Amino acid sequence: MKELPLQPQKTTFCNLMISFHRFQLSNGLKVIVHQDYTTPIVALNVLYNVGARDEKPEKTGFAHLFEHLMFGGSKNIPRYDEPLERVGGENNAFTSNDVTSYYITIPEPNLETAFWLESDRMLDLAFSKKSLEVQRNVVMEEFRQTHLNQPFGDAWLLLRPLAYHVHPYRWSTIGADINHIAHATMDDVKDFYSRFYNPNNAILCVAGPVEVQKIKDLSEKWFGDIPPGPPNNRQLPPEPAQTAARTMHVERDVPCNAIYKAWHIPDRLSQRYYTADLISDVLSAGESSRLYVELVKKRQLFSDISAYITGNLDPGLLVISGKLMNGTSMEIAENAIQEAIEKLQEEPVNGRELQKVKNRIESMLVFTEIKVLEKALNLSMYELLGDADMINHEISKYSEVDAEEISNFAREFLIPGNCSSLYYQMKSK
Known about the structure:
Layout: E1 2-3, E2 12-13, E3 16-17, E4 21-24, E5 30-35, E6 41-48, H1 62-69, H2 81-86, E7 90-95, E8 100-107, H3 111-123, H4 129-148, H5 155-163, H6 178-182, H7 186-196, E9 202-208, H8 212-223, E10 246-252, E11 258-264, H9 271-284, H10 290-298, E12 302-309, E13 317-324, H11 330-346, H12 351-368, H13 372-385, H14 394-399, H15 403-413, E14 419-426
Parallel strand pairs: 5-9, 10-14
Antiparallel strand pairs: 1-4, 2-3, 4-5, 6-8, 6-9, 7-8, 11-13, 11-14, 12-13
């Protein structure tokens, strides 16, 4: 076990102290410990540095499939949930294009059960034909329900490959094609597991009323003997700059027309990421936001409209999507969105409006970090980004953005040549 430098970290995050220790096992597993004695509950999160972007174009949806397979039992624990429920624990997981996280909340006296469960499925997941078939069917049914059989469900299946032509963000976490999961073989899933589900490709974070030495001892006991896997030398093809507008028109059996417009933006570690996030809030955070006031309330062109960023680690998207009121033409709706963009480009955001969205983000960040589970999840993610201490500097990153930067960003990125537009229309009667 080796200590990483500058431990422990202690920084003031508004009025909330997010302090932590971190160390690394000899097999490469990074461990972060946050001590919080205001709760009897401990949160344990294992973040694996693997997401949908690590899949092969002809075999997509595997990261999400593994989120399900990891609950199918391991060598010594055939039923993952049973021993956890006996000791008052709860668990869940999520997959994104960038990462996969498995997390547990459990009373502190029973914490070792969580270490036992997570280490056993990292060491030796049970691969059975029955488990693969069951989870494959679950994922395929989820694909149908969320993306094929509900109104607007396939919008992102269409928008992603429209916006991305090279980078693997061109497919959704659920996969590009349901047949990729339908045809997944045992060899396919074993290969995916051996490549990515290793201690040197994971970050373990424990938050709650715990002692650092106890977490070191438990980490060594349960994870220390797991052999490292191959290095995750990720070499993803960068998406070339988009230089011309892209459009797609589709007709579906939906109750109204909708429009989706996506602009490429910088990656998560760029300072301009924070500018993009603030712009999305200026446009659509709450009923006093620009798009809601102008296009929903006053002009009644949309029944709802929102702006958001995808938040990806590699260069992502700023998206404006809205459902049109019946009688509103697609042309009028799109022109109204363009007018809102041009106002950002031509007129600096006034100080009060900008401060309002900064205050909103600050409040969200502070309240999010009150819960031990959220702190465990976020510390893991920031460590993956390069340094868990980034959690303590997010507010200052937002505060550095001024009105001029917002206008400059809008003029540089929110332009027609950098935009992919999906026109989602009702079937003609």
